[in-house]
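so i finally got all the pieces together for this one. its two components total, 1113 residues if u count the protein bits. some of the lines might not be protein, just check the labels. i wanna see the whole assembly predicted at once instead of chain by chain like last time, that was a mess tbh
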Amino acid sequence: MSTLQSLDITRRSATTSPSPSVRESEEVAKLIDISKCIGCKACQAACYEWNDLRDEIGVNVGVYDNPPDLTENSWTLMRFTEVEEDGNLEWLIRKDGCMHCADPGCLKACPSPGAIVQYSNGIVDFISENCIGCGYCVKGCPFNIPRISKKDQKAYKCTLCSDRVSVGLEPACAKACPTQAISFGTKKDMIEFAQTRITDLNERGYDKAGLYDPPGVDGTHVMYVLQHADRPELYADLPKDPKISPLVEAWKGAAKPVALIGLGLTALFGFLHYVSTGPNEVEATDEEQAKKAIDQPDEKREGR
Amino acid sequence: MTNTWADIKNTNLVVIMGGNAAEAHPCGFKWVTEAKAHNKAKLIVVDPRFTRSAAVSDLYVPIRAGSDIAWLGGLINYLLTQDKIQHEYVKAYTNATFIVKPGFGFADGLFTGYDAQKRDYDRSSWAYEIGEDGYAKVDETLLDPRCVYQLMKAHYARYTPEMVERICGSPKDKLIQAWEWIAETAAPDRAMTSMYALGWTQHSKGSQNIRTMAMVQLLLGNIGVAGGGMNALRGHSNIQGLTDLGLMSNLIPGYLTLPSEKEVSKATYLQSRGFKPLRPGQLSYWQNYPKFFVSFLKSMYGKEATADNDFGYDWLPKLDVSYDVLRTFELMHQGKINGYFCQGFNPLMAFPNKKKLINALRQLKFLVVMDPLATETASFWENHGQYNDVDPTQIQTEVFRLPTTCFAEEDGSLTNSGRWLQWHWKGADGPGESRSDIIILTDLFLRLRDMYRKQGGAFPEPILGLHWPYKLAEAPSPEEIAREVNGYVVEDITDPKDASVVQLRAGQQLDGFAQLRDDGKTACGCWIYSGCFTERGNQMARRDNSDPYDSGLAPGWAWAWPVNRRILYNRASCDVDGKPWNPRHKVIEWNGKAWAGADVPDYPPATKPEAGMNPFIMNPEGVARLFTLGMMRDGPFPEHYEPFEAPVANALHPKVNANPVARVFKGDLEVFGTADDYPYVATTYRLTEHFHYWSKHCHINATLQPQQFVEIGEALAKEKGINNGDQIKVRSNRGQIVAVAVVTKRIRPLKVDGKMIHTVGIPIHWGFTGQTKKGFGANILTPYVGDANIETPEYKAFLVDVERATPSV
């Protein structure tokens, strides 16, 4: 959904020419404080309602996570993990969804020009009319977020409510959250606010509490306050040190100049060969041999 | 709630027990989150399961379902033996000092006066000793062995930490840690709030569960103060409104009681409702009962209610027995009820023992369901395979479905847990042929009245005499009804000293219940709501959220009963001299001339502290009760009784296991299960994603929890070879359900009386209508017995067996 002005786009997928850089907005961020989250799924419901999405009514596979995974219609999901250590039980409930990386792997991997954009406020958005449904974004995402629709073969994910943010509103999930586990504002303010929460958690005995804003993707515009920031993997396999896959980096990085050079060399070699050896022409000896081959078909063939 | 939602942010300690606040009240729970974030409050959760509330708690203590009185009794014993109580508060504001009659006692599980034949008590010994002056005797030193304080101490001496661990299965170290944190709130500048709900009410001793915590809060001085209180989290947006308006079978609006058939006249009825003060200088505000009652009768019967006919007293129904839902369906089951109006609830899913309910409903000649949804009850006659195995050809009941609008499709008010009446406006038209409940009942009433007029009939007077003053008789508006409920002046009220001066003019709205009279000059539909719609307009529609004292009290937001008071008993927030216990969180205080502050004083504004009037002005004693006299059927002190289906004998008195006065019908007693056949403790509960049996009809809710499941602990799953996601059968002595197993660490086996007891958790939200996968009502399993005082069914503790279902199910 391209509801922000095109003036706000700083990066576009598969495009080497610069994006408009005249207008700049302050970077925003959504902060999810897992210590305040009661797993009520109001955020899931709000996301459906705001975006006019509905998903299949599935079955229970033995978990509270419903639906069991993100889909083209379910852009956010509460993931419930039970962790028991030294007789102490914790029920860690994490809201999963696009992290809106500062260096987005999906944008880097995407081969379709302008199918994925990044705005100056940090939001990473899919421009669906340009999407070819190749699925490279899924591979490129360190968090396994985008999903391809079976209906229209396009990729979908959380938009950080770019349409709401563009008119000064907070995302639907933040508005719905009853405990203010989800807050929204400038990234600067969210980092400051997170620090007060971390101090509170420290006072309650969570000495490893901290902010999840992974440097491997240059930071994200969705951040978590974690009780156990030293072990993000406890929270339904949240990656500890997410980076864009080296495969994608190479494919969109070194592979490009290498491929260009390869193309160039191939062209050069072709030209030189043509100039030196010339085109492949049919000789008189070739014609005679061909005739022979036609007149003696059976022996030759049975020999095979 | 005695306090109010936003006030919870002022607390130092939240105890969630007998409820699951984060799960069932996620929006109200934000005040707990605020208290933690801004007031450094701690949260303790006590529950058989590690719930979503426990997920954000500072301390979780497991407890066996059905043993709350033992836990809380142990806490009382701890506070008394450690002497961690608010001494001044207890002495001045509770009946700790009151002397009890010599005949009262307790032994081997029974209080004095028990009649085993009747399964009831003669409660006359449960009373104060009255002096010659007609007042109750007190001992300020608290040393008299017959004073309430000493009797209470002796009663709970049996509830040692070891005994509590044995009965509840709570590990002793966790008990002591929780009790220590709770004891800290005895300090005058610290408060604890108790947030509870159906985890306490849905037991055969539910009322006493709540009573025990009320005693704890009184011992700690946490009633009437900011951040304190007994805070019932109501389970429906307007269920508080339902009970306030007297929609229980034994009530009339404002918690007045329907007469019994023995009360043949208004005079007899009022005689036992005199509420004379039991201590000198006490207000005993219920003494004004006649004013509330007569004003109610005037609102019912208008001009027809006069002094000559006792204001229509004879036209009120009189009770021979209570007609609670368990009784009603029992009578239905016996074939004694012809027709049933089922308005806005779903008994087939909501009442216990579904098998019995089907057999009851099929005996009706006709059933009328008024509901926005096509409920299971409306389709009780329809076969849905294993989910509703009935043969429609064998059911003769005629079922009428009258679709109603729902709350967003009409104007009206909702009363929340905090006693706020909040007016709401219609947001959309109702679909199809739906009509509002007001219009449907009006239509019915006008036709009935017409038939009585034309044809006569047995006892037409109450029908013909019903006051029907609406501008459009066929369409009373919600505002008109609200104005009636507020109350108005019937006849000019003049100055008693000068009859030419009219103080209140006929027809004007009343300002509050202080203006009510028992001479027929005022009418009031519900005395506690008086003040909600005055001459100044609809107070419930106000939306000013300014909080001038930064107390969490926004007096301009909507209107709370009574008289816009947000914290009840708030006189108790100050000491006997009128100084606040906690200067940082004042509610009201005596300023030399009057009581004033952030809230409306729950006290006559100009009464000086020296007058010695106590804070609990509704009570004849003026103080709060630790000992409740004869007001609770099962005892003046709460006592641990086991649920009717229990895994162990009562460790305190095995000869009296369960509640000795809870009513059990013949036929229901026989289908209680035993621990030998059903070794696991089952408990039913709600999930955040659903509201009872409604939200399964909404696509989004159905997506968020699509299918019925049962939760069992890893240990039990291992024993039974059940894997996460397997189909399992859960059986009680009344029926069986099949559901997906959610195997979890959050339910641990508890060591109870030396045995390892497993708990099976059964969420209730699926049935045979709606968008979710079809499911079985959890009520298929539950026993048909209710609380001894108010008959709330025992859904929270009963016995089941579980096993893997065969693949073909």
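The interface with chain B takes residues 35-42, 44-45, 48-49, 54-64, 66-67, 74, 82, 84, 89-93, 178-181, 197, 200, 203-204 of chain A (CB under 8 Å).
The first helix of chain A runs from residue 42 to 51.
anyway lmk what u think
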